[in-house]
Design a protein that fits this description.
Layout: H1 17-47, H2 53-60, H3 64-91, H4 94-113, H5 118-146, H6 149-192, H7 194-208, H8 214-217, H9 225-243, H10 256-274, H11 290-320, H12 325-331, H13 333-353, H14 355-378, H15 384-387, H16 389-411, H17 419-449, H18 456-486
Helix pairs in contact: 1-5, 1-6, 1-7, 2-6, 3-4, 3-5, 3-9, 3-17, 4-5, 4-6, 4-7, 5-6, 5-17, 6-12, 6-13, 6-16, 9-10, 9-17, 11-16, 11-17, 11-18, 13-16, 14-16, 14-18, 17-18
């Protein structure tokens, strides 16, 4: 008699649809967490280096020009590759592009930390900026892919918190690392701190991020090399005179701006032509969608004012009032905390309040900035950090209600197939705005903070006034968008 094969008795009933849905949701949020950690790392390196510059100069005997390229080289390379990298993620495997960018950024951080001379560090920063530009647009692309509806708003809220927190916490973390590891080699750990993060994030990203679907990539494999060349050349022509404003003193640098206008106009014309036959680098149809066009414009202007504040505030504290790097970092912590909390809240409210939430945030930023200037006027001495704590907290809350809701509203109507390139355009606007703002606000600041009898408090107040003017311009963009919505476009 032949023995019958035994049947495996199920351990229990199959999982319910709600249980499967719950596991899928948990996986999406874990994937987002990996994306945000990597994005935080790349955006942090925009601001963390500021407080390390004095020790970098001493450690590598760097010239003023070399120090400027440590900052501007990162910004140039970052802005140059954002849109092509976003397009590459749309056309191929977003996960592969993300992993490549993360691995290259980790390697570049190791090379920067190990720098033995000025040229080595500048080249490493260029490499690091390009790697960051490859990685960052994939984050917004993944949010578009992974989340829908109200969940997408919360996910963009988390991304907005990451953007605000990375910008504000950079000086604090940089000051802490220099304090812990000493003034001679502490600056190296500003770069080395990325290594354990990158090494831990790589396997998690490979496991959690979704692989591309072949159908989703169909028809989007063109890379538009002419469009890439025109956009890249135009972006560099816009950024270079601003990021080199302190070192390139010749007025000839401003001739790059009309050249940039010609290149970008040629890019727009080429993209319209190319779209008739193939998939362009950037679909000009995106700008016909009012929330997208308004959101990109608002980001450009707002980041010009928002980023410049940290630049002049840390200079005022460290150079004007002789704060340590750590103390200067602590002084901007109220802004970071307010921004992080408000961005998460804003992500939940944006679905109900829309652009009105951004309006409220911009008003709070204006209030906080102007009150900070008044506080410095009343208490211009060593107590500045205490006097500006509450105003900076208010401005941080406002900023959190601007960045993440604006990102949600800007990208909410973008097709998933164009999420990477659309996010790259938005990030490029932020980078261009930051460079322009630092140059404009910085020039006003330095005009009164240099010379035989510098007036640091007055220089800061004037710089804040210019930054507030830029925030006001962003407010007008938001008002126009709200008004257009009320009138049905």
């Amino acid at each position: 008699m032949t023995a019958q094969p035994s049947r495996r008795i199920p351990d229990g009933p199959p999982p319910s649809a709600s249980a499967v849905s719950g596991r899928a949701a948990a996986r999406r949020w874990r994937a987002l967490a990996v994306c945000l950690v990597a994005g935080f790392m790349t955006l942090l390196d925009v601001s963390i280096v500021n407080v390390a510059l004095p020790t970098v100069r001493a450690g590598l005997h760097m010239s003023d020009s070399g120090l400027q390229w440590v900052l501007s080289g990162y910004a140039l390379a970052f802005g140059l590759v954002l849109v092509p990298a976003g397009r590459l993620g749309d056309a191929r495997s977003r996960r592969t592009v993300f992993l490549t960018g993360l691995a290259l950024f980790t390697l570049a951080s190791a090379l920067a930390g190990a720098a033995r001379n000025q040229d080595w560090l500048v080249l490493a920063r260029l490499f690091q900026g390009a790697a960051g530009g490859v990685l960052v647009p994939q984050v917004s692309g993944f949010i578009q892919v992974l989340f829908q509806g109200a969940e997408r708003g919360r996910a963009f809220g988390a991304l907005g918190a990451t953007v605000g927190l990375s910008t504000a916490v950079g000086p604090l973390l940089g000051g802490l690392l220099i304090h812990l590891f000493g003034p001679h080699d502490g600056w190296r750990w500003v770069f080395y701190v990325n290594l354990p993060i990158g090494v831990a994030a790589l396997p998690l990203a490979y496991r959690l991020l979704p692989a591309p679907q072949a159908a989703a990539r169909a028809g989007h494999r063109d890379f538009d090399p002419v469009g890439m060349l025109l956009l890249g050349s135009g972006t560099v022509a816009v950024l270079l005179p601003f990021v080199q404003e302190q070192q390139w003193h010749s007025a000839a640098r401003w001739l790059l701006l009309p050249l940039a206008a010609v290149l970008l106009a040629a890019f727009v014309g080429w993209e319209r032509y190319y779209a008739r036959h193939r998939e362009p680098l950037v679909s000009m149809g995106l700008f016909a969608v009012r929330p997208y066009a308004a959101g990109v414009t608002l980001s450009l202007v707002y980041f010009a004012g928002f980023t410049a504040i940290f630049f002049i505030f840390t200079l005022y504290l460290q150079t004007g009032l002789h704060y340590s790097a750590l103390a200067a970092g602590v002084a901007v912590t109220p802004f970071a905390l307010g921004s992080a909390v408000a961005a998460a809240v804003g992500g939940r409210l944006v679905g109900r309040l829309g652009r009105r939430l951004v309006l409220a945030g911009l008003l709070l930023v204006l209030l906080g900035l102007l009150t900070s200037a008044l506080a410095v006027q009343q208490w211009p001495g060593q107590s500045v950090a205490w006097a500006t704590a509450l105003p900076l907290l208010v401005a941080g809350v406002g900023s959190g209600l601007v960045i993440s809701p604006n990102q949600t509203l800007t990208l909410q109507q973008v097709p998933v197939a164009r999420a990477g390139s659309a996010g790259g355009v938005l990030q490029t606007a932020q980078r261009v705005g930051s460079a322009v703002g630092i140059a404009v606000v910085g020039s006003v600041f330095f005009a009164h903070a240099q010379g035989p009898r510098p007036d640091w408090a007055w220089a800061f107040q004037l710089g804040v006034a210019v930054a507030a003017g830029l925030v006001l311009a962003a407010l007008l963009v938001a008002v126009a968008d709200v008004a257009a919505g009320w009138h049905g476009d």
